[in-house]
Structures are given as structure tokens and as C-alpha cells.
From TrEMBL, chain A:
GO cellular component, one term: mitochondrial intermembrane space
Domain PRELI/MSF1, first and last residues per copy: 2-170
Species: Allacma fusca
Residue intervals passing through the bilayer: none
Family matches, as InterPro entries: PRELI/MSF1_dom (IPR006797), Slowmo/Ups (IPR037365)
The protein's name in its UniProt record: PRELI/MSF1 domain-containing protein
TrEMBL record, chain B:
Domain of life: Eukaryota
Family under the similarity heading: Belongs to the TRIAP1/MDM35 family.
Gene Ontology BP term (one): phospholipid translocation
Gene Ontology molecular function: any one: phosphatidic acid transfer activity
InterPro entries named in the record: MDM35_apoptosis
Official protein name in the record: TP53-regulated inhibitor of apoptosis 1
A GO-annotated cellular component: nucleus
Alphabetized UniProt keyword annotations: Disulfide bond
Record organism: Allacma fusca
Length: 172, 91
């Protein structure tokens, strides 16, 4: 029980560029809520690069949520696989701690566009759940709303890094 | 890339570099990240899978981060396990 959310976005950059920018997407003007980023584990598994990153983000809960979540920061664990042969990046991100209050899990795959090889398609799935009886709908609604906001910020932030990483500054 | 560009979405100055969980690990993080970024672009994406070139940087960096994680009470049973590509993964 919870909310499920799905969307896709297109980056106007080739997969190799997206893969390189992926490791450098923070900081960007849309990521002020991301306080720290650390690689805590990395190894080659077969053809793929497996990585675990620990992110600390500010926890911007509304006042009614502060009763349940007393910390101002939340720890996020991001796992990823990069397959340079098949050109797929798969990421899986989840919050640690307070998962019974609100759990947000996001899975994203980045692949070359089948029709435009210089573009990359990101397909995103998210699961937002809460086990707090009586507040579940409010928390899931809040979580989904915040997720959508973060999601568009994340895409904007990634686009910003891609534009600048490549050294081309394009105007919308 | 200019901070004075009027088309920038956010006029606040953003830091040049991302912090580590503890400031004392920042330099080790930057050294490791630089090694990894070079390796990723020049070796891994060209088919070379030998990650060991960055091992000396990773060793110092991860020891520092580990200490900071313990001090901050981060749950290492959660950070040290695979979920993606396992049965625990949400589908």
C-alpha cells in the first residue's frame, strides 16, 4: 500500500556524456538541499561498475511531520550499476532511518534513445509508503508531492551539469 | 558557467565542490573523485575494467568516511547490503 509514480525524461546528450556527468551532478543550482555526497563502496561486477553512495540531504518536512521525524537531515543510499557495453545506468535510491514514517524508493534507468542516439532517456519509478496509521494518506501525499518537486529539480540539476560539463552553454 | 549569467536558474552562489559527510574527509574525497572521474572517462568507458589504480585513494578516503558514519550513527547494516538486483528490490 502506498503511492507509485512513474515518468520519463529525455536528456539532449549522448549516453556516454550522461554517464560521466552522472558522477558530477552535484553540486548544481538545484541541489542546495544535498549537504554531502560520499562513495562508500565500488567494485567491478562482471561487465558492470557497481557503486554505493551515501548522501545526506536536508529533511524538509512540514510542521505536522516534525512530530514523527525529529532529525533535520536524512541519509540516502544510492546504488548504481553502469554497463558500458549495453549502455545502461541503473540507479536505486532509498532513505535510511525513519523508513516506517516515510519510505521513498526510486529506481531510474538511463539508456540511449532508440530513435536519436545523441539523446538519453531516463525512466523513473518511485514507491512512496508510510506505516504511520492515521497519517498514511497525508504522508504519502506529501511524499509524492515532494518527490515530484525533487524529480523536476533533479532533472533540471542534471541538465545544468550536462550543459556545463560539455562546455556548451545553451539558452532555453 | 558564469554566476552572473542572468539566465541561471538560481542566483545563489553554489559551492564549487560537494562536501563529504565530514569536512575532515573533504580533501581525501576530492583526490579520490578526481582519480575515479579520470579512470571512468579514459579507461572504463573505453573497455578497461581495472579499477585498482584508484585503490590507494579509496582506502584513505573510505576509512575517513567510515569513522564519520560511526560518529553520526549511520546504520551500516543498511549501507553495507545490496538491494538493487536482489529479491529485496521493489518492482
Amino acid at each position: 500500500m502506498g503511492k507509485y509514480f512513474e515518468n520519463s525524461s529525455i536528456f539532449l546528450f549522448a549516453w556516454d556524456q550522461v554517464a560521466q556527468a552522472f558522477w558530477n551532478r552535484y553540486p548544481n543550482p538545484h541541489s542546495s538541499h544535498v549537504l554531502s555526497e560520499d562513495t562508500i563502496h565500488r567494485e567491478i561486477r562482471g561487465n558492470e561498475l557497481y557503486t554505493r553512495k551515501l548522501l545526506i540531504k536536508t529533511n524538509r518536512m512540514p510542521k505536522w511531520g516534525a512530530h514523527f521525524v525529529k532529525t533535520k537531515n536524512v541519509a540516502i543510499l544510492e546504488e548504481s550499476y553502469v554497463n558500458p557495453v549495453d549502455k545502461v545506468i541503473t540507479t536505486y535510491t532509498r532513505n535510511l532511518g525513519y523508513t516506517r514514517v516515510m519510505s521513498i524508493v526510486e529506481k531510474v534507468t538511463y539508456r540511449p534513445s532508440p530513435t536519436f542516439p545523441d539523446q538519453t532517456i531516463a525512466e523513473r519509478k518511485a514507491w512512496i509508503t508510510s506505516e504511520i496509521y492515521g497519517f498514511r494518506r497525508a504522508i504519502e501525499g506529501f511524499g509524492a508531492k515532494r518527490f515530484r518537486k525533487n524529480c523536476s529539480q533533479a532533472v533540471s540539476g542534471f541538465n545544468y551539469v550536462l550543459q556545463n560539463y560539455k562546455g556548451i552553454y545553451s539558452y532555453c | 558557467m558564469s554566476q552572473t549569467d542572468p539566465k541561471q536558474p538560481n542566483q545563489q552562489a553554489s559551492p564549487q565542490f560537494m562536501n563529504s559527510i565530514s569536512e575532515e574527509c573533504n580533501m581525501l574525497k576530492y583526490q579520490y573523485d578526481e582519480c575515479f572521474n579520470n579512470w571512468f572517462s579514459e579507461k572504463f568507458l573505453q573497455g578497461n575494467k581495472d579499477l585498482s589504480v584508484c585503490d590507494p585513494y579509496m582506502k584513505l578516503y573510505s576509512e575517513c568516511v567510515r569513522r564519520a558514519m560511526l560518529v553520526k550513527g549511520i546504520d551500516t547494516t543498511e549501507t553495507d547490503r545490496d538491494v538493487l538486483k536482489t529479491d529485496s528490490e521493489l518492482k
